[in-house]
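Margin note from the TA: students keep mixing up input and output lines. Inputs are the sequences; the output is the structure of the whole complex. Example:
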Amino acid sequence: MARSKNESQLYVDSLLAHGSLSGTTPLYLTGARALIESVVLVSQLEDIQRVRPNTVVVLSAEMGAGGWLASAALRHAWERRASAVIVAGSTYASGVVVLAERLDITLLATHGDPAGLALALSAEIGAALSVVDAKLARVAQAVAKETSVGEVVKTVSRELDGIGISLEYGDIVVASAGTSQRTAVDVISVEVGTASSSSFNFALMAHMPSSGRSNPLMVRSILEVAVPAVKAALLFEDLVSADRAVPTAAFGFLAQDFVASGAELLETQGRLLAELGWRLDEPYVAVFFSSRRAEGCGPELTAVLRLLWRKVAVRSPLAEVQDGWLAIVPAGRLEVGDQLENRIEVRLGAALFALNLTAGLSRWREEPTSLPLIVHEARLAAAAASPGKVLGFARLGVSAAATFVDAKAIALVAELTLPRLMACDERDVIIAAVAAFLDHHGSVSLAAKSLNVHRNTLQARLHRARELGVPLDMPSELLSVHLILNVLRRSWQDLPGSQSLLEKEESM
Amino acid sequence: MRTLLTADDVSNIRTGAHFLACTIDPTTIYLYEQMITRAMEDQPVELVTVDELSADDLVVAVGMVTQGLSIADMPPVGDEFLACISDMEVRLGREVKAVYSLAAANYNGIIPLMVGLQSALPVIDSDPMGRVLPLISQTTLAMGGVGISPVTLMGVTGERALVEADDPQRAETLVRALVTELGGWAATAMYPCSAKQLKEHGVHGSVTRMIQIGQILNARTTSVEKKILLLSELLDSTRIARARVSHIESLSRPTGPGLPAQPSSVTLQDESTGHIIRAEIQNEILLVLVDGAVTAAVPDMITLLNSEQGTVVNVDDIRVGNVLDILKLRAAPQWYTSAGFDLAEPRAFGIPLEHPRRRHG
């Protein structure tokens, strides 16, 4: 039987084949491979109650003999999850072997001096531990050379025989390497830490395969050794990315004042833009990420988003701008825009949802584009997208118009013109009823069906709306009423943790 | 209350004595039962409680001490205990008023009845062990500071000896050596004390308990399960397992110096639960492990019943394939004190193990 590929791990079967246990007689061997991490020579039965898991328990000659002793030792060793029990060759009997089988714990018999056997095993464990130390030093050296998070993760995975390693931020996989994580039976996680007080935290994860060949303690030690390198790589990459993103950030700042016309920007800031590396005669697509998070955009989120953005367009840096994150991607062909949208959807969709972000893309144009215009389009598309979704500006419909109205101003108008409705306890329900009624061209039946309520219930709510001053019977007012109600409905839906109107409807 | 024992009582005592020490030599108990029953046709034997005696009355323990020889192999002539009592009276210059059993189980549980019949002395419903222990120093009287000596002995061939030793352990060593020289067994009288001392430091009701156990086990129409239930109510006993004997070992443990008999072990398997039960034997069952965990240990009493008939199983008669009920009984409370554990926990028998209750209180 070959020794484990990983020399730092000792197993009972390996040492029986060609190690310090080769002189012992196996009375019972467990089906599973029993890992050995320590050995203890016991002279008191009670000593076994304090051994660590994965320990080989050797009963000393001074302890005395007796089948009962072997039975009790087996029991204690089983309770402590020991690797094996070694008894003197003369003390065992079939009853003890049957008990070892029942408890499924390896039982070996030695015909030599138990103390000598324990010493030999101890020396073997010491040698294995020195291999561990050497290995940890080698891993530390290897990961210290890497400057990117992806390379650090790859190096760790390589050192662990290719098992799946990932750097995760909350549930978002920022970088990964090694075999598929789907086959993992256990996950070992080591916290990487974060500078800010974020609800998320970076963690380095090892996805242990079902083969069980990897020593969990060794894996954890290697992850811990790799943590400083991961932190350094995160900081270094953030620094490099921030540096590379300066032209984009600068452009984002300049473009704020030149929404309508690129010509004006070119006229006044053309030289500066040229110095920043922008070629205004080339087509670009702008990508804008907008946050719906209450806590806004911290530097940590920027770092995470930049790491994620590498999966989409590694050459186009992502810059943090005033109200989100901006990237401008060269797009010589129409397909580039579609591919970009598709890649964001596929590769970042889950992460965007987890981070409560939206993504928007500008339209692709063949002719040289007004850069401020594409930034504005991407920003508007991001504003119109649902959380976790990516939306191209070209796909906006007329309903998007409601997205861009000033929700705060609309709310003020509503407070002014519909004060009784806004103060009413049943406000949400009535707004939902009226909005549904207007959505369905004044059809009570269709509106009631869409809200899953009885027709009479909807009629009652519409009647109540009229009582509260909603001008449902004045055609000239209906467009404004519909707009107000839609904006109010949308703003409530966007509130974090808010209960949807439908949910309220069902719970009533 | 003074009680005149009947032949049924003697039969029940025999069964009870056997039950409380399912160990060697049931033949001796049977022989004594027969002799006592015959002798009772002419004269009754009187059982008294220690309260019925005057506080200063001299009482002595009587019992056989053996060393390698079965009593049935060389039966006593009959005058041995009378000689021991007589020697005791001469040595102390006082008249013995009553006798009590050295150990209220096994043959020493029934022998005092014969002595009572022969000497016309009442038998006290008390003893200094409440069970059988192999050493004469392992008594509640020794725990209470009651002196063991003088010990008077009469051996197989009629030779007599008297031992004076203050320390019970030293007396044990001397008596054990003498018994070997006297031929393998000796009738003895020891622990001469006042009725008041016996009352303070003895275990009481032990003869009555044997009668009650016998009444349960000798009832022919009672099922085994019912017997076990009744024993549980009487003795607060528990059944550790009903298991089949799978292996018998001898000499699995070395005998400590001064400890009689040869050790052996029995391994059983509970066929319903799969538990593996190991019983360590040295004269009596000292230790029971269930799946390697200590479930009963001296001073607990551990006894065996035939699962089909509900009769007591001798350790010597265990065979591979037998299905046995293993019962655990609590010993007298004195044995679960620190001094009691010092005298009678597994360590005292050469097994390096503390009784679980010493650790857990």
